[in-house]
Amino acid sequence: MKRKICLFLFCCCFPLFAEKGSWNFNLTNDVVYYPFCDFIPGETHFSKISGPLDTAAIRITGQANYIIPTPLGNHWLLSDAHVTIQPSLQIVPVTMRSINKIIFTPFPFLEFEAGTSLGIGWNIGNIKGLTSLNEETRQYENLNTFSHYYYDFWFMGTFQFDTGAVIPGDWTHVVMLAQYQVIYKGITGLKDTGIYNWQTIPGQVKGLQYDAQIILAYQMPIVLYRAGIMTEFTAHYDGKDYGSFDENYDGDFTTILLSPFLQFKFENEDTLSVLCQFSNRRSFIENHKKTNRRNVSY
C-alpha cells in the first residue's frame, strides 16, 4: 500500500486566560481549514491541492486547572513539584466531550498525565458526528446519540527542556519537547472490529493506539514569541483491530504530521497559534473518487 503526502492548511487556536491563582480557567477556540487533495494511485506519492475546500472545522474548549503543590525537597529542581487537576468541556457543532486529566510534574522538565473522556455525538444533514460502517453495504449509518458513546483513556509522558534555563538571556530560549501517549478509544455498543466515524473522521476502530510528538521551537521576548516545527506519529499497535479490513486497509498504518507553527502572545495574556500541517495518508492501487466530502464546518 503506497503512501503519499497532501497539504492541510491551516489550524488556528485562540486561547483566552481568565484568572490566576490555584484555580485558573481558559477558553480555547480552534479554527481549521483543509483544502481538497484528490487521491492519486500508483507510484505518485504527493497529492497537490486539487480543490478549495475539503473540510472547515471549529471547536471550543473550556478548561479549568487546580494546582496542588507537592514539593519533593528544597532543591529548585524539586521544590516546584505539583499535581494539576484539569477538567474540561469540548464542544463542536456535532459532538460534545467531557475530558478529565490528572498531571503530575515532579521536575520542571518532566510530566506524567493520566486522563479519560466521554462524549456524545449527533448528525446534522451531511455533517456526521457519530456513524458506523455497515459492512454489507459499505456505507456509514447514523448512530443513536444516547445509545452509543465515545470514550477514551490514556497515559502520557512528556519531557521538555528550555536552553534558557542554563543559558541566561531573553534570546537564548530553544524549546524542545518529546511526548508519548498510549491511548485506548472506541464507541460503546459496537462490536470490537466495528468501524466508526467520530467528529466527521471516518475509518476509526476500537483499540490501543499511540501518539508521539516532537516539538522544536525558538522562543522570543516579542509578540511573535515562538516559532518552530511539530512532528507527530499516530497508529494502532495492532492492525488486527480492523478485523477483516486489516489486510486491504493497512490497519497499523502510521500517520505522520509535519506542522510548522507560529505562536503570538498579547499583553492581555491571549495567545494565537497558527500552523500549516502536512500529512501522509493511505494510498490505494485503484483510482477512485473521494465520497462524502466533509465540506462543511463542524
List keywords for this structure.
disordered N terminus; 1 helix; mainly beta; 298 residues; 19 strands; 4-stranded antiparallel β-sheet; 12-stranded antiparallel beta barrel; disordered C terminus
Explain this structure:
The protein has one helix and 19 strands. Strands 1-2-4-5-6-7-12-13-16-17-18-19 form a twelve-stranded antiparallel beta barrel. By secondary structure, it is an all-beta fold. Mean pLDDT is 86; it is low at 1-21 and 291-298. The chain is globular. Strand 6 (95-107) and strand 7 form a beta hairpin. The protein has one helix at residues 246-249, and strands spanning 3-17, 23-36, 46-47, 51-69, 82-92, 95-107, 110-121, 123-124, 127-128, 130-134, 139-142, 150-162, 173-187, 195-198, 201-205, 207-219, 224-236, 255-265, 271-282.
Short summary of the structure?
It is built from one helix and 19 strands. With about 300 residues, the protein is mostly beta strands. The N terminus and C terminus are likely disordered.
Strand ordering within the main sheet? 1-2-4-5-6-7-12-13-16-17-18-19
Total count of strands: 19
What share of the residues does DSSP label as strand, in percent?
Answer: over 45%
Q: How is the quaternary structure best described? A: single chain
pLDDT averaged over residues: 86
Shape, per Cα inertia axes: globular
Termini separation comes to: 31 Å
Radius of gyration: 21 Å
Please provide the ordered H/E string of secondary-structure elements. Answer: EEEEEEEEEEEEEEEEEHEE
Low-confidence stretches: 1-21, 291-298
Helix content: under 10%
**Tally of individual helices:** 1
Biggest sheet details: 12 strands, antiparallel, barrel
Instruction: State the secondary-structure class.
Output: mainly beta
